[in-house]
Each structure stands twice: as C-alpha cells, then as structure tokens.
Amino acid sequence: MSLQKEIEQKSKEIHTESLSMSIGEIISMYTQCDLDIHPEFQRFYRWSNYQKTKLIESILLNIPVPPIFVAQRTDGIWDVVDGLQRLSTIFEFIGILKDHKGKNVPPLELEKTSLLPSLEKKLWQSKGANSFSDAQQRYFKRSRLDFVIIQKESDPSSKYELFQRLNTGGSSLTPQEVRNCLLIMNNEEYFEKLKILSEYQPFIDTINLSDKNIDEQYDKELVSRFLVLKDKSPRDLTNIPDLGIYLDDELIKYFNINFDNWAVTENIFKRTFKLIFETVGTNAFKRYNLEKDEFFGGFIVSAFEMVALGVAHRIEFNERHPESIISKIKTCWVKITSTGITWKGYSASGRLPKTVGIGQDIFNES
Predict the structure, then answer these.
(1) Which of 11, 215, 301, 307 stands the most exposed, by the fewest C-beta atoms within 10 Å?
(2) pLDDT at site 28
(3) How far is Cα 36 from Cα 71, in angstroms, rounded to an integer?
(4) Is residue 91 a contact partner of residue 28, using CB atoms and an 8 Å limit?
C-alpha cells in the first residue's frame, strides 16, 4: 500500500470536531455525569498547588490554555483523553471534584503568583474576604476552553492511541503511569490485577527498589515486563524499536487474552518470586563479581530480565531443584563475563534477546 493510500485510509478512521465551551457548561456536564474525567487517573498526576494556581491565573487573565481532548462514547458521555489535570483543577477550585472513591476533594486554596499576588489563600467560596466575588465567579464561569472531540464513529483504538501520544515525551507522567492509565481506560480491573501483583511481598523484597522508583511506578513496570516477556523467545524480541511502546501494546493484548483465566498468571508470578526470594533473597537482581564470589550494587533491570524470566520459563523444574537457583544465576554471570557480552547502550532489541536468551538457556539446563 502506498503512503498516500495509508494516509487516506487512516484519516477516514478518525473523526474529530472542535468547539469552544464555557467553564459553566463544563461544570454542568461534570455534575450531570456527562463528562468522565477518570478520577482513578488522579493518583498518577502530580501537579502542585502552585501549578494548579497558575492554571486558574491563566483563565482569569485570558491566557490561552491547551485544548482538551475527549472521546465520545456510544452512550453520549465524553471520556477525557487529555486534560484531566486541567479539568480536575477547575473542579477542585469550584469545590465539586470527587476522587476515585466518589468522595469530595477539599476545595483548592490558591497561592500567590507573580502576576496576581492577591490570589494568595483565595477560595472559590468562603465566608471571609478570601472568597471570589460574585463578579469574579461569573467571569470565571463564562471563560471558555477549547475541546477536540473524537466522535463515536472513529476507530475504537483512536482514543488509546491519542492518549499515548499526548502523554509521552514531554509529559510529567512516567511511561508506566501512562501504561497504567491505558489499562484503566480499557478495563479498570486490568490495573487492579497489575497492582495486586506489584504488592506481592516476595516480589517487593527481591526487587528492593528505592522509594523514588516506587513513586514513579517502576515496580509496576517490572510486573508489566514480566507478563509481556515471560512467554517470548529471544527471536520474538529482535525487532523492538521502542520498548515503552511495545509494552503499551503487548500488555493490553496480554490482559485481553489472559484476563478470564487470570489465576494461571497470578500463580506463575507468585511461584516465581517466592522461589527466587527463598533461594537468593535481595541479591537476585544484582551484579555478581566472579573473583570475590559476591553480589554487589543495587537492582539492575538486565539481571531481572535474565533471572526472573529464566526461572519462570521452567518453573516446575526449578521448584523441584531450588538448590540450583543461585548457582545458575552465577553461571549466567560467568557466561556474560567469559563471552564479553555487554548491553550497555543497546536498544531493547539489542539487549532483550541477550538477557532473555541467557536466562532461558541456563535455567533450562537439567
């Protein structure tokens, strides 16, 4: 198919409409449940009160705000694809925002800014002098925001593709936080299943991540890698241009295929990390020094791909021979050292076939 035909075909699959709406209209849609801002996403966004205040300031000063992207569902409700933090900030300021449990979030108290220092401690509505005046409230609600609507006739995958593109690159979200949101957009239970696995204590103990890594959802990224890669052969992994995009796509596919029989996935995951923790502990995913015969340093993802996926690949045999686990891990590092294998600076397609291949080869040995 020629480039022009590909452009024409894909263009026909996405139908959009642009319009401008007053904040008052948007508030009405939210309170009537005609606008789904995905409150469960809020846990992945980290706007400070000052950032929120700057948005309110922009609206008051008529400074352009980026358009908000929504997807129209078949029931007519608008799904927010991009703009959750902006809308959440407005609703929090007004005092109507609800969290993912349906509870009201305390109203936002504004901070001092360089352009509007008198915003300090201002509230939408209060009994004292810190309240917005009636005139200020009317002006705010009459201010307008631009919307881009992906119409219901569009290809069903359009909103996921758009969300992924708008929330990567310069976004404040980490790749796994975007992935978590994609899971929730497909089926909120997908994310809950992922979260449960990430909270399995032997898994937590073996990866032994820093608080910063946990805060950035790296534990869930490791679970995602495990699920997506555990049934792959090294040959399957030789043409991955971008691991993040690959995980986004493959994780959704994995859940779609395996969700109805999730007990099998959970069983393999728990058996794998229970066995690793009981035999190696927190050393499992560290480097190994052959000369000193000791593990050193912190967690490295290459060791995780090599060991966790290797153990899982033949879990029944490895459970029958737990005494061999630590020696096989050392054998992996002997092979890496003796053959001069390195993955420093490699892309995913350069590294993964090596780490997965070594793990499968060594842990498959009787």
Answers:
(1) 11
(2) 97
(3) 10
(4) no
Q: 0.90 exceeded by the pTM?
A: no
State whether 159 and 295 are in the same domain: no
Tell me what pLDDT residue 90 has.
Answer: 96
What's the domain range around 33? 3-173
- The domain tally of the chain equals 2
Q: Are residues 256 and 142 in the same domain?
A: no
The three-state DSSP-derived secondary structure of 250-288 is HHHHHHHHHHHHHHHHHHHHHHHHHHHHHHCHHHCCCEE
Together in a domain, 131 and 216: no
Q: Please, what is the average pLDDT of the chain?
A: 88
> Looking at the predicted structure, is the pLDDT value of residue 183 above 80?
yes
Task: Give the residue from 113, 148, 173 where a domain finishes.
Answer: 173
In this structure, what token pair is assigned to residue 210?
């820093």
38-64: string of b/e by CB count within 10 Å (b at 16+)?
bbbbbebbebeeeebbbbbbbbbeeee
Q: What is the pLDDT of residues 252-310, one digit of tens each?
A: 999 999 999 999 999 999 999 999 999 999 999 999 998 899 999 999 999 999 999 99
- Give the mean pLDDT of 101-115: 92
Both tokens of 30, joined, read 């939210």
**163-202 b/e with 16+ CB inside 10 Å = b?**
bbebbbeeeebbbbbbbbbbbbbbeeebbebbeebbebeb
Radius of gyration of the chain (CA): 25
Instruction: Answer whether 286's CB lies under 8 Å from 297's CB.
Output: yes
pLDDT tier for residue 355 given thresholds of 50, 70 and 90 = confident
**pLDDT: which is higher, 252 or 39:** 252
3-state secondary structure of 149: strand
Q: Are residues 154 and 10 in the same domain?
A: yes
pLDDT value, residue 159? 67
Residues 16, 155, single domain; the answer is yes
Q: Are residues 211 and 256 in the same domain?
A: yes
- Statement: residue 173 has pLDDT above 80: no
Q: 96: which 2 tokens?
A: 């109507």
User: Considering 173, 193, 208, which residue would you say is the last residue of a domain?
Assistant: 173
